[in-house]
Predict the 3D structure of the following.
Amino acid sequence: MHQLTWSVVWREWQRCLLLVVFACASQILPLATSAQPVAGQTNRYGFYQPHNPDGIGKIYLGREIAHVMGHESADWLERPERAAEEQPEQLVRALKLRSGDMVADIGAGTGYFTRRLAQAVGPAGRVFAEDVQPEMIALLKDLNARLSLTNITPVLGDAIDPHLATASVDLALLVDVYHEFEFPYEMMLGICRALKPGGCVIFVEYRGEDPAVPIKPLHKMTEAQVKKEMSVLPLDWVKTIEVLPRQHIIIFTKRGSGIASPGE
């Protein structure tokens, strides 16, 4: 009788355990099937809370990624004082662009630099004005119409891919945008893929080393941090030009190209 009782208890315990397992599975499986992985997501990134309100709480190689400046702030990109603060003509001269060059303006926004690049490369060249916000792409198309420019191609990218053709550009320019990339490694791989042999990537970032530069810390980068993040990519640092009032111009070439950078 004693053995029978324990046998019954054991079977009941097993049955209850199975019911608990099935109940948990019924709750977990719908979550697992509905949670779609982000394309290109890797274990290169860390997350922490609480985080800087100017950032997204996502860490890449020791740096917190900044919030993207939305299209609602497009007027700030065209502010009258920007010419004195950033000296865009000086920057374009430093690029040493030639007639016929194919240039990607990554994070083109309102086209503040796009229109200057288009003039520099001339009718034989082309500027691929890339942005991840459809509203910015609409502004870029309007820019084409207003200025009667025929050598600008707006390109809608996404968080992990600029959607540029392979080996299609001589130079990729990133002005005050790289620090906002949600997936910097994946995005830069796409940019590297788009470079022709001998192509250059040029970062223009507010100097993170200088506390006097009146920009939020997460929207500035040190030269050392840029070099650190590019060291894991097929890029070689060439030089850093310090001719702008507040920003670095940091030049890299596609590894193995053996081609001189702008200004050489």
User: Anything to note?
Assistant: The chain has one domain: 68-254. The chain has a mean pLDDT of 85. Helices lie at 2-34, 74-77, 82-86, 88-95, 114-121, 134-147, 184-194, 223-230. The first strand starts at residue 45 and ends at 47.
